[in-house]
Amino acid sequence: MQRILFVCLGNICRSPTAEAVTRAKAPHLSLDSAGTAGYHTGSPPYGPMQQAASARGYDLSPLRARQFTPNDFNDFDVIIAMDAENAQDIEAQRPTGAYTPVVLFTDHIGEDGTPVPDPYYTRDFDGCLDLIERCADGLIKGLS
13, 14, 66, 83: which is the annotated catalytic residue? Predict the structure, then answer.
């Protein structure tokens, strides 16, 4: 079973949404999410993100934020970052001898280097969801 970790900054908007959307589309995958910063550890996803996701049938309510750790390189087959800055922060924690690939979520739809914009700041929760759904579809297609 493919083990996939989605990572954003605080693990309250983009990465938990990517986890929930991908889980709904491919329940056979082993999925988790984390943040490069520990600001929100233990907190549920951001309320407005939960509302936007719920309107599309995705339940984020059971998820809780956690911080990315170097051990995640051992626990997952691929680590998917929501933007280049988070990818750099993840790479900075790579242990010697860890070869788990770190890729951007948008790489799965041919938009290499394009970030998933953070709706915590942009306030565009539906636009974020649109992009996450496209990326999840691309990821799943690439795995089959």
Answer: 14
Catalytic residue among 32, 72, 83, 118: 118
What pLDDT, in 10s, does the model give residues 37-77?
Answer: 999 999 999 999 999 999 999 999 999 999 999 999 999 99
Over the chain, what is the mean pLDDT?
96
Quick check: is 64 catalytic?
no
**pTM metric for this prediction:** 0.97
Furthest-apart CA atoms within the chain: distance in Å: 43
Is 14 labeled as catalytic in the residue annotation?
yes
**CA dist list (Å): 131 to 17, 40, 77, 116, 137:** 11, 23, 23, 7, 10
Catalytic residue list contains 134? no
